[in-house]
From TrEMBL:
Statement: the UniProt record of this protein carries the keyword RNA-binding: no
Signal peptide start-end: none
Keywords: Decarboxylase, Lyase, Pyridoxal phosphate
InterPro entries attached to this UniProt entry: Aromatic_deC, PyrdxlP-dep_de-COase, PyrdxlP-dep_Trfase, PyrdxlP-dep_Trfase_major, PyrdxlP-dep_Trfase_small, Pyridoxal-P_BS
Cofactor: pyridoxal 5'-phosphate
Species whose genome carries this gene: Streptomyces doudnae
Gene Ontology molecular function: any one: aromatic-L-amino-acid decarboxylase activity
Protein name: Pyridoxal-dependent decarboxylase
Source organism, top-level taxon: Bacteria
Cross-referenced Pfam families: Pyridoxal_deC
Entry annotated with the keyword Lyase: yes
Residue numbers carrying N6-(pyridoxal phosphate)lysine: 295
Protein family (similarity comment): Belongs to the group II decarboxylase family.
Length: 463
């Protein structure tokens, strides 16, 4: 063994303690440190010929790179929809690295059984029935990709084509209909050989809505003349967290032949709250479902789950035909269900957090975040310099300036807030209007943070 490796092995407890001390210090400072780092990063260094050992690497990281990392795990990082990591989830993530399990299948470890248990808990959490099987993937983009890949195979079944063998070209044009699809849907269609231009936009409801107009969707399906299609419904849109009427969309299958994929990346967590659970009524009727876990479940990146009713078609797409990996019979190993053969045990942080805090603890996070988003929305709505572009339906506030709401101005405001260090928000465009969005999903955010964000926005606007 190389002497530096041997030295690190002999001092491993001390090295892990040093890493723990650095992590604890960083987490303790999250509430006060700059939320975003906007300065230039160090120039790329040369690959070391002789290593410094673990302690040296830790010191080098703390000096050179840690100061430039964002406080994305903290309470005022409101860009995108980014959760943090609950204490139990963080412990589970550290142990994921320590145990370093190959989670591709059941051979030689109970890791796959733990993932099955965790998927079952999540299925129950989101109100899905036993007909839905699932697996962990890297994020919502991968979850949407898997769901749409299974949908593509279903289309082949309807049209008498074996897509996994003959390729997507054998299907001919594939109609994919959606009202307000996430950008990852187009990306998935590109990867799957269906094509971004096959995504057919369907009108949404009038006013400040992003939910699909169900009558317009009915008409678009009728226009296909009976050709089977894919419908992508939304349970929580990016800009305003609007929800398609999943029951009404599902009922259209009485007259039309389509695969229903529901993108519930973070909106699916509405199921945890009695006040908001009605928003996901009908989710159980979906053929495939996407839910992102490093958003509102507050587990570390990267983690999401995908569900489908047609595991047989999922295996047809993703099975890996190799003697040393085993055949996908009975209860297929996870490597036969997702694009990855190599899979870290992403389920372990989720298992830890669900075990530690249960349904009740995670419901409290969801409901508190919604209250805080509504608080910020009310503060902005009360000020003449800001305009809400939609009601705060769940955990995202979408707003703009009442005067000169140009893309340049809104981007400059976002930059100014980030440079001030108090918060991080992302610019967007809603109904053609440049805007900002603040997404609440972190488990530590409080009313004091809302006050600080509101004050930061006021300062940026007046600068």
């Amino acid at each position: 063994m190389h002497r530096t490796l041997a030295d690190d092995l002999s001092r491993l407890p001390a090295l892990l303690q040093s890493a723990r001390d650095l992590a604890a210090g960083e987490l303790a400072s999250l509430a006060e440190r700059p939320v975003a780092r906007t300065g230039p990063a160090p120039a790329a260094d040369r690959l070391p010929e002789a290593g410094t050992g673990g302690a040296g690497a830790l010191a080098r990281f703390a000096e050179r790179w840690a100061p430039g990392f964002s406080a994305s795990a903290g309470p005022r990082y409101l860009g995108f929809v980014t959760g943090g990591a609950t204490p139990a989830a963080l412990a589970g993530d550290w142990l994921t690295g320590a145990f370093d399990q190959n989670a591709s299948g059941a051979a030689g470890s109970w890791a796959a059984a733990l993932e099955h248990e965790t998927v079952g808990w999540l299925r129950e959490l989101f109100g899905l029935g036993p007909a839905h099987s699932g697996a962990f993937v890297t994020g919502a983009s991968a979850s949407n990709l898997v769901g749409l890949a299974v949908a593509r195979e279903w289309l082949g079944e309807r049209l008498g084509v074996d897509v996994s063998r003959d390729g997507a070209a054998a299907l001919g044009p594939v109609p994919v209909l959606s009202g307000s699809p996430h950008s990852s849907v187009g990306k998935a269609l590109s990867v799957l050989g269906i094509g971004r231009d096959r995504l057919l936009p369907v009108p949404v409801a009038d006013g400040d809505r992003e939910a699909v107009d169900v009558a317009a969707l009915d008409a678009a399906l009728t226009a296909l003349g009976g050709r089977p299609a894919i419908v992508v419904a939304n349970a929580g849109t990016v800009n305003t967290v609007d929800f398609d009427d999943l029951r009404a969309v599902g009922a259209l299958r009485e007259r039309h032949d389509f695969w229903l994929h529901v993108d519930a990346a973070f909106g699916g967590f509405a199921a945890l709250s009695p006040e908001f659970a009605h928003l996901v009524d009908g989710l159980d009727a979906a053929d495939s479902v996407c839910v992102d876990l490093h958003k509102w479940l507050n587990v570390p990146y990267d983690a999401a789950v995908q569900f489908t009713r047609r595991r047989d078609l999922q295996v047809a797409v993703f099975h890996n035909a190799s003697p040393y990996l085993g055949a996908p019979t009975g209860d297929p190993d996870f490597l036969h269900l997702t694009p990855e053969n190599s899979r870290r045990l992403r389920a372990l942080p989720a298992w830890f957090s669900l075990t530690a805090y249960g349904r009740e603890g995670h419901r409290e996070i969801v409901e508190r975040n919604v209250r805080l988003a509504r608080d910020l929305g009310a503060r902005l709505d009360a000020r003449p310099e800001w305009d809400l572009l939609a009601p705060v339906r769940l955990n995202v506030v979408c707003f703009t300036t009442s005067e000169a709401p140009t893309g340049e101005r809104l981007a400059a405001l976002a930059d100014a807030v980030a440079e001030g260090g108090e918060a991080f928000l992302t610019p967007t465009v809603f109904k053609g209007v440049p805007a900002l969005r603040a997404a609440f999903s972190n488990w530590t955010t409080t009313r004091d943070d809302v006050e600080r964000v509101a004050a930061a926005l006021t300062r940026a606007l007046r600068a």
